[in-house]
Amino acid sequence: MIRNSVEGRLTSPLLDLSEFAGQVILFPMKSIVITRISLLSFIKLTTATAIAIGWFLGVLSLIASLFGGPAAANIFGLKFQGIAGGLINVIWVPIVFGVGLGIFSIAAFWPFLWLLRGIGGLRLDFEGSESAGPRSVSRPKSEELVLR
Predict the structure, then answer these.
(1) b/e burial code for range 121-131 (CB count within 10 A of at least 16 → b)
(2) Is-contact 145 32, C-beta < 8 A?
(3) How is 9-57 classified by DSSP, letter by letter?
(4) Which among 19, 47, 121, 136 could bridge 102 via Cys, Cβ 3.0 to 4.6 Å?
């Protein structure tokens, strides 16, 4: 934040923050447009997504095994079935998905950048900002932030 010495207003290169002087804004944006992303950030994003999906599938496998469904895990030649297979899947599937998609994301990075440029950016809307709103008296004038 930069204080303008002539007018005494708070300014920022991205947002006009003058209406928020003296207020605490925890979430001033409703959406963000991503036009570029670094390779490391892309790997983090895809790996975190893969781990979440792997954990979800591992838990589904555990639940299926608790009700007598077929749950099997094969780790380096060791085969587990039933509840043991379901328990191992909760740990093993997120690891395999995270490493696999982490490696795949290196190859997918440049096509993803090309796609971002082709569609003009990826807009992410924040659901929490819509329901709760910023914790201040007034809403921000700028509802969107563009990252370049």
Answers:
(1) beeeeeeebee
(2) yes
(3) -EE-SSS--GGGTT---S---SEEEES---HHHHHHHHHHHHHHHHHHH
(4) 47
DSSP structural state of residue 5 = T
- For 96-145, give the DSSP string: HHHHHHHHHHHHHHHHHHHHHHHHT-EEEE-HHHHHT--SSSS--S--EE
The string of DSSP letters for 50-68 reads HHHHHHHHHHHHHHHHHTT
What does the alpha-carbon distance between residue 117 and residue 29 come to, in Å, rounded to a whole number? Answer: 23
User: What is the domain partition of the chain in residue ranges?
Assistant: 12-35+121-148, 40-106
DSSP state of 78: E
CA nearest 56: which of 87, 92, 90, 81? 90
Question: Could you give the CA distance from residue 39 to residue 135 in angstroms, rounded to a whole number?
Answer: 34
Using one digit for the tens of pLDDT, what is the confidence trace for 27-74?
566 778 888 889 999 999 999 999 999 999 999 989 988 888 888 888
Q: What is the pTM of this model?
A: 0.60
Q: Give SS3 for 82.
A: coil
